[in-house]
Amino acid sequence: MSVQQPWAFAIARGGKSVSNQSLPSAYRGPLLIHASMRVDLKACDSPLIQAAGWDPRDPLATIGAIIAVAELDHVCSAAVGNAPCDCGPWAAPGLHHWHLTGIRALPRPIVALGRTDLWQPSPTLVNEVNTMFAAAAFNNAT
Q1: Please, how many CA atoms are within 13 Å of residue 77, restricted to the half-sphere of its CB?
Q2: pTM, entire model
Q3: What gap in Å lies between CA 102 and CA 72, rounded to an integer?
Q4: Distances, alpha carbon 30 to alpha carbons 51, 100, 103, in Å
Q5: Tell me: the pLDDT tens digits for 17-69?
Q6: What is the CA radius of gyration of the chain?
Q7: What is the CATH number of domain 2-141?
Q8: Omega before residue 6 within 30° of 0, cis
Q9: Terminal CA-to-CA distance of the chain, rounded, Å?
Q10: What is the SS3 string spanning 39-103?
Q11: Cα(38)–Cα(40) distance, integer angstroms
């Protein structure tokens, strides 16, 4: 899934486990977190983003790249109907809250094209992500 910066950074590094989306999704499973080519400049100064450790010099603050992986665990749609929900400080009213678990930041970004909706990554891209995590685990074990 493609996410604007600094929100993608907040997912990768800052503990943001809810992604606010205009549509629900029946999909559950692994997601690549792609930092889109657009930046939400107003959000860069928000208290939540600052608390997440936003640092534009961090390699994962890049745009146009895969920066993390996560599992889409469940979707809360209560807020869409203005019903109260307990999805936390990252949850915006009036939107579907996609709950992400098992978030792992990549050791370094992988340049890739994204799309505005959920998209199927190429097998080559998935292999590159898996290889990067395997190499990092190997390096940490030695």
Answers
A1: 5
A2: 0.92
A3: 9
A4: 26, 9, 10
A5: 999 999 999 999 999 999 999 999 999 999 999 999 999 999 999 999 999 99
A6: 15
A7: 2.30.130.30
A8: yes
A9: 33
A10: ECHHHHHCHHHHHCCCCCCCHHHCCCEEEEEEEEEEEECHHHHCCCCCCCCCCCCCCEEEEEEEE
A11: 7
Please tell me the predicted confidence (pLDDT) of residue 142.
65
- How many angstroms separate the CA atoms of 8 and 31, rounded? 12
Please give the Cα distance from 58 to 67 (Å, whole number): 11
| Dist CA 134 CA 138 (whole Å) | 6
3-state DSSP assignment of residue 11: helix
For residue 23, give the nearest of 41, 1, 40, 44 by alpha carbon. Answer: 1
Tokens 């749609």 locate to 77
3-class DSSP state of 25? coil
Q: Are 126 and 112 in contact (CB under 8 A)?
A: no
Domain ranges of the chain: 2-141
